[in-house]
Amino acid sequence: MHPNIEKVAAVLREHGVPGEIVVFAEATPTAATAAAQLGCEVGAIANSLIFDADGEPLLVLTSGAHRVDTDLIARTAGAERVRRADPAFVRAATGQVIGGVAPIGHPAPVRTLVDTWLGKHEVVWAAAGHPHTVFPTSFDELVRITGGLPVEVE
Question: Where do the YbaK/aminoacyl-tRNA synthetase-associated domain residues begin and end (predicted)?
Answer without folding.
Answer: 26-144
